């Protein structure tokens, strides 16, 4: 087992002193995110998201399965999010640490429980055939704030993905290959995105902590929001206690940030669409 | 979504268990309910019962995890098979239980004065005996009491409650049925400062309602704190009384401030 | 050398012995000691290497470092195909690294596939944007087909074949995995190497046709025989401690070249001795070419670091 080494105290003091002046070691202002970059893969639904030096690869695939008997109209969304040692040697294969559980649970909550994907739209034949989406996340590099990066990557991959067009004639389902009919995008209700803030004793919160910042901070708060001013998930476990006003302050910052992020996503998608031929006809 | 046949709030403004929106469920706090643990308590809120035992500060089970300048806290959460629905659905090592454990640990890490107990371990065992919603809030309340009963220094009472929202009406202390149907927020606050140490929410909610719920929750926590404080004081008072009898007069060497 | 005339073009416009454009990126991952991305066209892999690290007590070896190689497929979780790839890597790297220099420590190599593990949706290159789809409504009918279908596999039967997601990796995926791992170890620079393993895949499209170097997915799919070769490059390679490291399922005369040595051979399908030796020769040239590209890229990266 590889243990994390505590950063030297001189580094800690320097970081705190800089933060007290409202400066961060990478030159950002407290409520600024690192640069978001998307790299689209060859296939639809394959997106690598980079948030500064943190990188997560998301891949969406679809298959046709039988729905559950009690929910014949609903498709499935499976999320595979195991953090391997590639992200950082502290994560081990097949052994989940506390932080890993928190990340995967929060992702699950913010993507699945908020009903970002219209699962009823995944139904092909009630009680017979539904689409099963599988979202696989690969955590490539943990340079702090894996969660935000993973949520961006996931939402982007889901937006980017297209499922093949299907036609139902009686009981028969015809799956059209992409060159017959253009594949169709998924029906999505909204785009929930995670924002993580880190707290330091007696200092104002910072957005998108780097790895060093998150090891030194006294607590984090993650809020998942969408562009419709809705809070989808909020999670603050322990750390510095906050007053109601402080929490509300952070949430209000989140509203604007999420809007900006959705805009960045849409622009990236638009750009990708120009370079990609989806319509074959 | 699944059981929307139940009327969350009827025309008379009563909930399905005949409570008013801001009414907490009946509570019972019992201290020292475990034979060998340093501190323990059993807390019942409505039909949810949680027993928490605190062991330690003691020598850590594995040396390698010990810290030289503070105590480490380990939390384990278990649910008895008959706690809910009779079908041992939640097994040990379930991600949800691990998450509850992690939340409890993170909530108490800044509250317990860990620097007083270097190189040691404080082990908190949470057992859910019956579950009818609000496992985490009840477990947090029980942990606070157990820590007090174990005599471990903490900076403040941590009290926790769940808050739901039905249309525009906030509801306090949700039962299992309500929990499944409503957007809900779990809040734990340090009651003296009124600051929030844990906040968890996992369903969609509009921003404007959120603040109202936060404020309501902090108020409810204060009510719970008074109840818990009363139990602790009664307990300690009884103890002091007995000591006085044995030692004779006020020579027990212990006073409690009223 | 190869019997095919060099003038003949392949379906994607390449000459028979032409490699797809290479992707070589070094050191992009922040938290690993070393990382490398290697790709032949669309087939690519990312690898990271960390070490020497603290090792778990029960894995500790008193005389050498514990080498932990893991692989993650692009979709789902690792299965047999993944395991097979790890076995390949495990046969190559222990001899390439001087593990005895780092006793009681851990060296981690993680390979992440960046291209789909299963066969293409249909054997054409017309729509490589198409999502990966397979149907598993009736899992019991899913054939447990070993990946290389008999060469008689017609395009009509292809549909059937897609139903099994757990086909093993094609040779170019295996080759990129090996090459990316080599890049990662090079970038880490913390582990002494005796030589550099570099791999290439070669396919034979038909009996009378010549061999193609670095076949694309569909070429490999329609081929009658496939080969994977890895050559080790280094000065005095043969002087290393353990001599017999080649993991070949064929009886090959080892080339006593001064600076390159065969370290991995896998082959499938129908071929004769002549074809095999042709492939062997071709792979040598291709690996040399890849090596020089890697050298150039590495030099560039180091130069950048020096300037900073």
TrEMBL record, chain A:
* Keyword Oxidoreductase appears in the UniProt entry: no
Q: Which UniProt keywords apply?
A: Cytoplasm, Exosome, Nucleus, RNA-binding, rRNA processing
GO BP annotation list = exonucleolytic trimming to generate mature 3'-end of 5.8S rRNA from tricistronic rRNA transcript (SSU-rRNA, 5.8S rRNA, LSU-rRNA); nuclear mRNA surveillance; nuclear polyadenylation-dependent rRNA catabolic process; rRNA catabolic process; TRAMP-dependent tRNA surveillance pathway; U1 snRNA 3'-end processing; U4 snRNA 3'-end processing; U5 snRNA 3'-end processing
Where does the record say this protein resides?
Answer: Cytoplasm; Nucleus, Nucleolus
Q: Which InterPro entries match?
A: ExoRNase_PH_dom1, ExoRNase_PH_dom2, ExoRNase_PH_dom2_sf, Exosome_comp_Rrp42_subfam, PNPase/RNase_PH_dom_sf, Ribosomal_Su5_D2-typ_SF, Rrp45
Q: Which domain of life is it from?
A: Eukaryota
Residues covered by the Exoribonuclease phosphorolytic domain: 32-164, 191-255
Record has Cell division as a keyword: no
Q: What is one term from the GO cellular component aspect held by the record?
A: nuclear exosome (RNase complex)
- GO molecular function ontology, one term from the record: mRNA 3'-UTR AU-rich region binding
Family in the record: Belongs to the RNase PH family.
Q: What is this protein called?
A: Exosome complex component RRP45
Q: Look up and give the organism this protein is from.
A: Kwoniella mangroviensis CBS 10435
UniProtKB/TrEMBL annotation, chain B:
Family to which this protein belongs: Belongs to the RNase PH family.
| Keyword Cytoplasm part of the UniProt annotation | yes
User: Is Zinc a UniProt keyword of this protein?
Assistant: no
Q: What does the record note on quaternary structure? A: Component of the RNA exosome complex. Specifically part of the catalytically inactive RNA exosome core complex (Exo-9) which may associate with the catalytic subunits RRP6 and DIS3 in cytoplasmic- and nuclear-specific RNA exosome complex forms. Exo-9 is formed by a hexameric base ring of RNase PH domain-containing subunits and a cap ring consisting of CSL4, RRP4 and RRP40.
Check the record and name the Gene3D superfamilies matching this protein.
GHMP Kinase, N-terminal domain (3.30.230.70)
What are the subcellular locations of this protein?
Answer: Cytoplasm; Nucleus, Nucleolus
Outline the extent of the Exoribonuclease phosphorolytic domain.
23-152, 156-219
Q: What is this protein called?
A: Ribosomal RNA-processing protein 41
Which GO molecular function, any one, fits this protein according to its record?
A: RNA binding
- Superkingdom of this protein's organism: Eukaryota
Its GO biological process annotations read: nuclear mRNA surveillance; poly(A)-dependent snoRNA 3'-end processing; rRNA catabolic process; U4 snRNA 3'-end processing
Keyword terms, alphabetized? Cytoplasm, Exosome
Pfam families in the record, alphabetically? RNase_PH, RNase_PH_C
Q: Which InterPro entries match?
A: ExoRNase_PH_dom1 (IPR001247), ExoRNase_PH_dom2 (IPR015847), ExoRNase_PH_dom2_sf (IPR036345), PNPase/RNase_PH_dom_sf (IPR027408), Ribosomal_Su5_D2-typ_SF (IPR020568), RNase_PH (IPR050080)
Q: Which GO terms describe its cellular component?
A: cytoplasmic exosome (RNase complex); nuclear exosome (RNase complex); nucleolus
- Look up the coiled coil feature and give its residue ranges: none
Main localisation, per the record?
cytoplasm
TrEMBL record, chain C:
GO MF annotations in UniProt: RNA binding
Entry similarity comment: Belongs to the RNase PH family.
Name of one Pfam family that matches: RNase_PH
Its chief place of residence is: nucleus
Renumbered to this chain, the Basic and acidic residues biased-composition regions fall at 9-20
Can the keyword Nucleus be found in this entry's annotation? yes
| GO BP terms | nuclear mRNA surveillance; poly(A)-dependent snoRNA 3'-end processing; rRNA catabolic process; rRNA processing; U4 snRNA 3'-end processing
Q: Does this UniProt record's set of keywords contain rRNA processing?
A: yes
Q: Which residues form a coiled coil?
A: none
GO annotation, cellular component aspect: cytoplasmic exosome (RNase complex); nuclear exosome (RNase complex); nucleolus
Which organism does this sequence originate in? Kwoniella mangroviensis CBS 10435
Exoribonuclease phosphorolytic domain location? 18-189
Q: Where in the cell is it found?
A: Nucleus
- UniProt name for this protein: Exoribonuclease phosphorolytic domain-containing protein
Which keywords label this protein?
Answer: Exosome, Nucleus, rRNA processing
Region of interest: Disordered: 1-20, 142-164
InterPro entries per UniProt: ExoRNase_PH_dom1, ExoRNase_PH_dom2_sf, PNPase/RNase_PH_dom_sf, Ribosomal_Su5_D2-typ_SF, RNase_PH
């Amino acid at each position: 087992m590889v243990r994390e080494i505590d950063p030297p105290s001189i580094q800690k003091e320097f970081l705190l002193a800089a933060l007290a002046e409202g400066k961060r070691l990478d030159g950002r202002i407290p409520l600024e995110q690192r640069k978001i970059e998307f790299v689209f893969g060859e296939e639809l639904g394959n997106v690598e998201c980079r948030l500064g030096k943190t990188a997560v690869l998301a891949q969406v695939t679809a298959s046709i399965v039988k729905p559950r008997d009690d929910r014949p109209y609903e498709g499935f969304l499976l999320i595979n999010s195991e953090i391997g040692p590639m992200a950082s040697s502290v994560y081990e294969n097949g052994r989940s640490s506390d932080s890993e559980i928190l990340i995967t649970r929060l992702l699950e909550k913010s993507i699945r429980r908020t009903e970002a994907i219209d699962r009823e739209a995944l139904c092909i034949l009630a009680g017979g055939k539904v689409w099963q989406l599988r979202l696989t996340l690969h955590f490539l590099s943990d340079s702090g704030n894996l969660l935000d990066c993973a949520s961006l990557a996931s939402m982007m991959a889901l937006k980017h993905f297209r499922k093949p067009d299907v036609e139902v004639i009686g009981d028969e389902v015809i799956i059209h290959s992409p060159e017959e009919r253009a594949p169709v995008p998924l029906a999505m209700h909204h785009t929930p995105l995670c924002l993580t803030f880190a707290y330091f004793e007696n200092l104002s919160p910072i957005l998108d902590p780097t790895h060093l910042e998150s090891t030194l901070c006294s607590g984090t708060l993650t809020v998942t929001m969408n562009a419709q001013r809705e809070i989808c998930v909020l999670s603050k476990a322990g750390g510095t206690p906050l007053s109601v006003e402080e929490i509300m302050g952070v949430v209000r910052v989140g509203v604007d940030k999420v809007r900006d992020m959705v805009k960045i996503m849409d622009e990236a998608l638009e750009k990708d669409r120009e370079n990609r031929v989806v319509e074959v006809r | 979504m699944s059981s929307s046949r139940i009327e969350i709030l009827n025309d008379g403004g009563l909930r399905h268990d005949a409570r008013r929106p801001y009414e907490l469920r009946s509570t019972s706090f019992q201290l020292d309910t475990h034979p060998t643990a340093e501190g323990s308590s059993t807390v019942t809120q409505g039909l949810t019962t949680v027993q928490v035992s605190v062991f330690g500060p003691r020598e850590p089970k594995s040396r390698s995890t010990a810290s030289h300048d503070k105590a480490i806290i380990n939390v384990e959460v278990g649910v008895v098979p008959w706690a809910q629905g009779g079908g041992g659905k939640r097994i040990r090592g379930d991600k949800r239980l691990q998450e509850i454990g992690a939340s409890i640990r993170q909530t108490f890490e800044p509250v317990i004065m860990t620097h007083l107990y270097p190189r040691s371990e404080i082990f908190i065992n949470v057992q859910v005996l019956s579950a009818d919603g609000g496992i985490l809030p009840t477990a947090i309340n029980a942990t606070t009491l157990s820590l007090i009963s174990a005599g471990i220094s903490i900076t403040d009472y941590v009290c926790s409650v769940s808050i739901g929202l039905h249309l525009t009406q906030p509801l306090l202390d949700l039962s299992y049925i309500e929990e499944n149907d409503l957007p809900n927020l779990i809040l734990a606050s340090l009651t003296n400062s009124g600051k929030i140490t844990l906040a968890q929410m996992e369903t969609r909610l509009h921003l404007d309602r959120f603040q109202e719920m936060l404020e309501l929750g902090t108020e409810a926590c204060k009510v719970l704190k008074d109840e818990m404080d009363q139990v602790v004081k009664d307990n300690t008072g009884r103890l002091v009384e007995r000591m006085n009898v044995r030692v004779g007069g006020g020579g027990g060497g212990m006073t409690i401030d009223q | 050398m190869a019997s095919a005339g060099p003038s003949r073009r392949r379906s994607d416009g390449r000459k028979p012995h032409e490699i797809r454009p290479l992707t070589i990126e070094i050191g992009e991952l922040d938290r690993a000691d070393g990382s490398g991305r290697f790709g032949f066209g669309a087939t690519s892999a990312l690898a990271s290497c960390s070490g020497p690290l603290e090792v778990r007590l029960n894995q500790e070896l008193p005389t050498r470092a514990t080498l932990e190689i893991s692989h993650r497929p692009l979709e789902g979780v690792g299965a047999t195909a993944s395991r097979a790839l790890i076995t390949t890597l495990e046969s190559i790297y222990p001899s390439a690294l001087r593990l005895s220099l780092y006793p009681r420590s851990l060296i981690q190599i993680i390979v992440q596939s960046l291209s789909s593990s299963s066969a293409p949706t249909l054997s054409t290159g017309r729509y490589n944007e198409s999502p990966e789809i397979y149907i598993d409504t009736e899992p019991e009918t899913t054939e447990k087909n070993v990946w290389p279908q008999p060469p008689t596999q017609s395009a009509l039967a292809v549909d059937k074949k897609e139903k099994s997601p757990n086909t093993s990796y094609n040779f170019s995926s295996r080759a990129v995995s090996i090459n990316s791992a080599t890049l990662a170890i090079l970038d880490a620079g913390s582990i002494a190497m005796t030589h550099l393993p570099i791999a290439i895949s070669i396919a034979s499209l038909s009996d009378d046709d010549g061999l193609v170097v670095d076949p694309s997915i569909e070429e490999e799919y329609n081929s009658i025989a496939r080969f994977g070769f890895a050559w080790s490059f280094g000065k005095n390679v043969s002087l290393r401690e353990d001599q017999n490291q080649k993991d070949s399922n064929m009886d090959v005369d080892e080339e006593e070249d001064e600076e390159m040595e065969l370290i991995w051979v896998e082959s499938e399908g129908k071929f004769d001795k002549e074809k095999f030796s042709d492939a062997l020769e071709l792979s040598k040239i291709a690996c040399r070419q890849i090596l020089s590209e890697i050298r150039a890229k590495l030099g560039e990266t180091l130069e950048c670091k020096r300037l900073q």
